[in-house]
Design brief:
three-stranded antiparallel β-sheet, TATA-Binding Protein, seven-stranded antiparallel β-sheet, 3 helices
Length: 155
């Protein structure tokens, strides 16, 4: 079964290229989390991509210590970049994917992680893991899918 590839058009509109249609997600179905970076700290999508590669390398090293391919289980995504958005395409069975983008509002910088329609519990768990790792690495205020907020000191 082929997984649809979604493009994040805005905070709550996804383009499903398989259906050649836009899908709106809002209210209960809206699945996004964001990390508000500490004042004065800026970030680009390329910086986030480098952090994602660092995260994958850490998972790979954990796998080497355990003598198994932990990275494949811990990060079952293919990374693509399109129009300043990182798309993590899942394996299609247990993981559908997610989108990561960077936005600024005045002097504040945010890293957004959004899940497409039909995202699985696995996607949500992986997004939570990565967003918490980002928050520990960069510091800032993490707004989770559940609505809860976690505050991390600057790294």
């Amino acid at each position: 079964m082929k997984t649809p590839f979604f493009h994040l058009l805005s905070a709550n509109i996804w383009y499903n290229k398989d259906k050649d249609a836009m899908e709106m997600v809002g209210g209960e179905g809206m699945m996004n989390t964001d990390l508000k970076l500490p004042a004065g700290k800026t970030m680009t999508i390329e910086d986030v991509k480098q952090l994602l590669e660092r995260y994958q390398m850490a998972l790979k090293k954990t796998g080497e210590q355990l003598c198994w391919a932990y990275e494949q289980a811990a990060f079952p995504y293919t990374v693509r970049i399109h129009e300043s958005v990182l798309y993590l395409q899942g394996d299609g069975r247990l993981y559908k994917g997610m989108a990561i983008s960077v936005r600024t509002a005045g002097e504040e910088t945010f890293i957004d992680i959004a899940l497409p329609p039909g995202a699985t519990h696995g996607d949500k768990g992986k997004a939570n893991e990565f967003s918490k790792w980002l928050a520990k690495t960069l510091g800032g205020e993490l707004h989770l899918f559940s609505g809860r907020t976690m505050v991390f000191g600057s790294a």
